[in-house]
Each structure stands twice: as C-alpha cells, then as structure tokens.
Task: inverse folding
C-alpha cells in the first residue's frame, strides 16, 4: 500500500508539473511595462462524483460578488511590481470565457491571446499576464474539475470526502505581437497538502462535508469565499516566481 501511494503521488507530481514554456532572460529583458487581467473568479462549481458515473452532478453559481478577480489582479500586480512597471488596464472578462463564440474560434492559449488582442488599447504595454480557469483531470477517472469549486466523493471511494479547489493557469501574452510567450498551471506549494489525500492536480484542500453548500447559497457563503481567497493568496506568488517572470 505504501509503495502504491508513493507511485501515485509521483504520478500526480508529474501531472502537476506539466507547465508550458517558461520565461527566459531574453524574454524578460524586452519587457518593461506589464498589465494584468483575471477571468477566474466569476463562477463557483459544486460537484458530486458518484461510483461508476452514477450520482454525478454539477451546479455552477455566479460569485462575482466575491471579488476574486480583483484579488487576483491585486496579488499578481504586487508580485510583478518587484521587477516591472505595472499599468492598470480596463478589460472585459467575457473575452476569456469558454461559452463565447469568439473564444471557440481559436483553441488553447491562442484563444487567450486573441482575447487580449481584441481589447488591448495601450501601445506601450510589453506583456499581458492573464489568469484564467484551468481544467484538470480528476485522478485516473474520466472526470475533470475546472476553476473554483468544491467536490464531494461518496464513502465507497478511497478518497471519500469533500475537497475545495482553485484551479487556474497563467498565460503571458506579448503586448506587441499578441503571441503567447509563456504559460503555466498553478504550481503546488508545500502547504498544499492535498497531494497526500487526493488526486486533484492543483491547489486544493480537504474540508469537512459540512462545507458543501445548499443549492442556492454558494455565492453568499463567506466560509467558502475566505478559503478560496486563502488558496489563491498563498499560491499565486509562488506560481509567478516559478514561471521566472521576476528574473
């Protein structure tokens, strides 16, 4: 059993480390002014995963009132300010949503670059740092988790219980050519001990099942908001540093 768990944790670590290209010195040298955009905080998913697909359920709730995107922009700006001149920028989060036709006309990171290009106004921004929801596989199942949310697993599963997650990716878009020059999923830090208990490939924490919100109260749940805020507040600086944005 111990050997199985060790192999399992190694596999999760490898999956979590699947980042795209990182920044290099020649890339950062050309960057003086940056702007930050975030579109990760408008929805919260309450998810239940059953056995063999029975009992699966997912509900999305609008949580714009939590101010998560403002938090993300503020946190990323404060980290980047050590190295760059950070400019405020107005933007429309809907340009980065998967349910817009414009987003689906392109794929992956190119879609994020297209969203930046469509609304970039200033000519002197050298790079845009964009934070968007990430979709990650849940263990070895066919299920996946995305963005902000909470998932509950039945007692019949080894990893039974409830888990809160904040899954995102960071994409760096060149402010002149509007091409992607770096990207990375959230980097797990030592405090994210969820690796010891579950196979969520990103920042998450185990919680009591009492955290599962009732059908309509997710957006008004201060405990959920505070926990998600804590996950992002702890994880974002480490992800930005690991991408070598500050070198």
Result:
């Amino acid at each position: 059993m111990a050997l199985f768990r060790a192999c399992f944790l190694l596999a999760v670590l490898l999956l979590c480390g699947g980042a795209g290209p990182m920044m290099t010195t020649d890339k950062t040298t050309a960057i003086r002014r940056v702007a930050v955009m975030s579109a990760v905080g408008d929805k919260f998913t309450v998810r239940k995963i059953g056995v063999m697909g029975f009992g699966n359920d997912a509900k999305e709730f609008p949580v714009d009132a939590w101010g998560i995107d403002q938090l993300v922009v503020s946190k990323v700006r404060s980290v980047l300010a050590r190295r760059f001149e950070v400019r405020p920028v107005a933007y429309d989060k809907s340009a980065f949503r998967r349910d817009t036709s414009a987003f689906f006309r392109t794929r992956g990171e190119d879609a994020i670059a297209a969203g930046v290009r469509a609304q970039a106004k200033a000519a002197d921004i050298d790079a845009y740092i964009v934070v968007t929801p990430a979709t990650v596989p849940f263990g070895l199942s066919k299920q996946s988790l995305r963005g902000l949310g909470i998932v509950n697993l039945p007692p019949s599963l080894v990893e039974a219980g409830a888990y809160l997650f904040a899954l995102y990716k960071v994409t760096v878009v060149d402010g002149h050519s509007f091409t992607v020059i770096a990207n990375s999923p959230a980097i797990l830090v030592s405090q994210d001990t969820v690796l010891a208990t579950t196979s969520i490939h990103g920042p998450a924490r185990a919680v009591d099942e009492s955290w599962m919100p009732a059908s309509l109260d997710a957006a008004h749940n201060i405990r959920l908001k505070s926990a998600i805020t804590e996950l992002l507040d702890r994880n974002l600086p480490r992800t930005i540093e690991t991408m070598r944005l500050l070198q």
In short: The radius of gyration is 18 Å. Helices lie at 2-16, 25-29, 68-80, 101-104, 108-119, 222-242. Residues 39 and 132 are 5 Å apart (CA to CA). Residues 2-242 form one domain.
